[in-house]
User: Fold this.
Amino acid sequence: MITPALFGSLSAQPHYLGIDLGGSSIKAAAIAQEGTLIASCTVPFIDQNKEWADRVFDLVQTFQRHLGEPQGIGLCAPGLAATDERSISVMPGRLHGLERFDWTSHLKAKSLVPVLNDAHAALLGEAWVGAAVGLQNVFMLTLGTGVGGASIVDGRLLKGHIGRAGHLGHISINFKGPLDDTGTPGSIESEIGNKTVTERSGGRFTTTLALVEASKSGDLDASLLWARSIQALGASLVSLINVLDPEAILIGGGITEAGDSLFAPLTEELNRMEWRPNGHRVRVLRAQLGGMAGAYGSAWNSIRLGDSPSSPP
Assistant:
C-alpha cells in the first residue's frame, strides 16, 4: 500500500498521472508537463476478481489527496488498445475483465483517460525524456518475461491497422521452432524470454540472469545456451533493421541487468551480421527509464490531448 512518506512534504501542484498496469503490479508516476518526475510508486496485486481495477482507483485517489487533481491521466496495459483509446480491446489469457474495461468511466475522470499498449507507452516515454529523445526512427525491445516491442517510424508511433504493430518479440527466426503465445514459430521471445528459460535449459535455470551468472562462472552448457540466445537476438535485430531502417535500437527490460554480458556479445553479433551500406551503423542504446517507462509514456499520452509537447506524436 502507499504510505504518506512517499509524498514527503510535497504539496498540491500541476501534474499528469501515468499508470502502467502490469501482470502483477501497477506503476504510477506523477509527472510535470516538462517531464520532471514528482512522485512514483509500485503497488502489487493478485490477478483475480479484477483486483487491479480497485488498486488503480485507490492509487489515483491517493495521488489526488496529496498532489491535487491531475491535469490528466493516462494508462497503459498489455494487449491491443481500442481505436477509441478508452480500453484494451484484446488481452487473452490474463487480467480477466480487462478487455473493453472503460478506464475513463471507472476512474470518474473529467476528461478521457487515453489507453495505450504497454510497450508502445514505454517507447513514447523514452522518446519524451529517455534514451530516444530527438530520434525520428527508432525501435525498442524489452527483454523480460517475454519480449515486448514498439517502433517510431518517421516521427510517429507505429500502431498498424488494429494496433498490433510493434509486437517485435513475435517475429520468427526459426520457422521450425516451438509456437509462442501468438502462434508464431521460433520467435525471438521463445529464444531469450524468461518464460522459456526453464524449458530451454532443461530445468536448470528459472531466470535468464541466473543463466548469465552461470555462464560467467565458466559453466560450458550455460555459456552455449546464452550464446545461442544472443545469436538469436542479433539475427532478429538485423532483420528488423532491414525492415525499419532505424537511427537506433533501444534495449530495455529486466534482462538488461546482465550489462556487458548482454551488450558486448550482442555488439559482436551485429558486427558480424548487420548490413551497413556506406559504413552506416545502427546504434544500440540501453533504455533509461527502467520500469517506469510505461508510466512516463502514459503521462505523455495524456499531455498529448491538451498542450501537445514537441516530442513524439
In short: The first strand starts at residue 16 and ends at 21. The radius of gyration is 20 Å. The chain has two domains: 4-121+291-304, 134-287. Residues 134-287 form a domain with the Nucleotidyltransferase; domain 5 fold (CATH 3.30.420.40).
